Amino acid sequence: MSAVIRGLGTAVPDRVVTNAELAATLDTTDEWVRTRTGIAERRIAEVGTATADLAVEAGAEALKAAGEQADAVVIATSTPDRSLPGVGPEVAARLGLGTVNAFDVNAACTGFVYGLAVAAGLIAGDIADRVLLVGAETMSRITDFSDRSTAVLFGDGAGAVLLSRGAEGDQGAVGPFDLGSDGDASDLLCVPAGGSRRPADPDAIAARDTFLQMDGREVYRQAVRRMVASSQKVLDRAGLTVADVDRLVGHQANARILDAVADRLGVAPERRFVNVARYGNTSAASIPLALADADLEPGEQVLLTAFGAGMTWGSTVVRWPSLPPG
Ligand code: UT7
Hints:
This protein is an alpha/beta fold. The protein has two domains: 165 residues, Thiolase/Chalcone synthase (Peroxisomal Thiolase, Chain A, domain 1, 3-Layer(aba) Sandwich), CATH 3.40.47; 146 residues, Thiolase/Chalcone synthase (Peroxisomal Thiolase, Chain A, domain 1, 3-Layer(aba) Sandwich). Helices cover 32% and strands 25% of the residues. It has eleven helices and 14 strands. It has a five-stranded mixed beta sheet with strand order 1-7-6-4-5, sandwiched between helices. Helix 3 crosses helix 4 and helix 8 runs parallel beside helix 9. The protein is globular. Bound molecules: oxa(dethia)-CoA. Oxa(dethia)-CoA (UT7) binds next to helix 2, helix 6, helix 8 and strand 13.
């Protein structure tokens, strides 16, 4: 028994913000951002648009594509509309799913891979038959647009899949998984204030500590190391080798990180998928947005791997299914 992907949907804000637009107010250049990250532009939600709005749009598209309803909703996000409650119940209600089991998973940029594992567990445990998993973020709300080291990196968006029960080995079956974390390194990438450790008081706001801060160089180093090791582990668990991987779809934070991971694993350039140029780093939304863009062929063996704040990392494999359009 397995959890099988039946439908896919996405939503991104209309507003495109180019590197040149950011360079108008920041000490940066289009050339720096493209060469260091591969990012050309990102989408930014208009004031008043929240994570749940993007999640509802992507979720509705995934349900429509699958032609099914869901009896559980899992939202992978680290930018919920409010710090309490999570957005899962609101998204379920707005999608007309009534009083189903609905909650959020916060594993930062690894959230979608963790969410797939949670969805698979809900199905395996007979807790739900059909799970709507949405990776949805409004990273712009925790981005300090006066800090050039992070302002150029992030974007907003959402991507969703509907999973339901199938047989092991079915096209679209997700798993096995490798998931991990290193809490000793949690300060490397965090929003220092606005939680229970340090509330968002006037001092924290003045110090801009309610925005995301990152030691980019160290996160880069760890991201490569962890995604390579995690990918190798999950391939071993699946009884696959790198030669079996038709497409590597990694978390889209930086094209250089994805290339370094693929080089170390030995995945040929034409088997890597990178769309960070269009959206920047959309955290938990990046993998489903990439899956939607990658023009995957049914039957292709896809390796998913991600790394993010926590630190967290995770990988899984899926033989791509034939999906109806959203
Ligand atoms: O999604 C979760 C995981 N997040 C990530 O995976 C992000 C990981 N980190 C990265 O992608 C990269 O480390 C960055 C893109 C953030 C930075 O690239 P880098 O090649 O590691 O650059 P750096 O941090 O070593 O900075 C090099 C220089 C510095 O100047 P000095 O100290 O050499 O004079 C920075 O101040 O580039 C400077 N710099 C910039 N210059 C122009 C940093 N940001 C910018 C900028 N424009 N936007």
